[in-house]
Amino acid sequence: MKKTHTRDFIGLQFFAEPADRMTQIEQRLAAIRGEVEQEGADLTALNTEVNQLLEERRQLTDSAEARSALLSKLGAGAIGTPVPAMTPTPSTPEQRQANTYTAASPEYRSAWLQRLRNVDLTETEQRAFTTVTDSAGAVIPTDTASSIFTKVKQYAPLLSKINLLHVPGMVRFAVEKTVHDAEYHAENAQINPKDDKLETIDLTAYEITKLVQVSKSVKTMSIPAFENWLVDMLARKIADKISDTILNGTGSSQGKGIEKANTWAEENSVEVALSASLTNADVQKLIALLPGGYDARAEFLMSKKTLFMDFMPLQDKNKHDIVTVQGNSYYIYGYPVTLDERIADHEAYLADLYTVIGNLPEDITITSGFDIDTNSFKFLGCAMFDCKPSMPDAIRKLRKADS
Description:
403 residues; 21% strand; five-stranded mixed sheet; single chain
């Protein structure tokens, strides 16, 4: 029987020290991020594995924090009689290495989250924070950044459907514009090149921000509870704006969405009269407008209201429903349906979303500040994102006339 990734990987914990195990977990989480992008990835199994790994990492982190707090009490004389020079100054390279920290260290994660809400750091946390930070500022902990990215993709499923890059700075992406067909060649005759052309798509980085303000009560929350609350709050709102950009972005001071992929006319869309209802013939015409080369990844996008009010009643000539249901998934003539309430009612797209190029050039960042006027903390989440459709003919639209 083939073993799942989860059983294979988690089994390593019985043979690893906590520090080694934490490294294994971080490596596996990083690997999963790449596997999610692969065709045919078992998202259910990967989601289960991520949840298990995050829970195990939380337990390891909590254990490390408890040990750190206990050592801090011992060092301060809170328990028993203080022992001078309890921890000798490292004298060998190996000992000095044991006292260094990275963005993946549990001690640094704890210190970073404590700093966000202005809580005093323990000696260990202070040492970890000082080791990792520099003049450019605090680096977001590896596991926190991973949690945010996982949450953003959970709340913005369209990110998993587009061609998403993670390239720092501006990206220039070349796509075919005019490509001539191959030709037969007469023996010994001269071959003249055709005027094939490429079109470049430039992606920059537009800021998407969300500011959260909360009372000083956050100082009383446990570190895991505070992190979960903050990650969920910021990731949800940032994901909403990224999804809206992929669909409706204007391309002016923001990414360009599929709504702006074309100027909608008869050759690339189907219009239903204002006073008319959608017909099966309209749906068939829309499907016919999409070139067959995009069929493998094509899907319908519409609001739930449009699906149930306009598409569900339709049947083909054999009186079969054109919408089929498999579990919680819907299909129209075999094409999967993605529901999104950001799409106007009575409108829909048939598109290969992988032809949309997007870029998240850096991890989502979080900064904090205390507002003395309201006696509250402010937390600012910031993502850099841009996107553009690269193949206009891969996007077709069903639209409702407005007059």
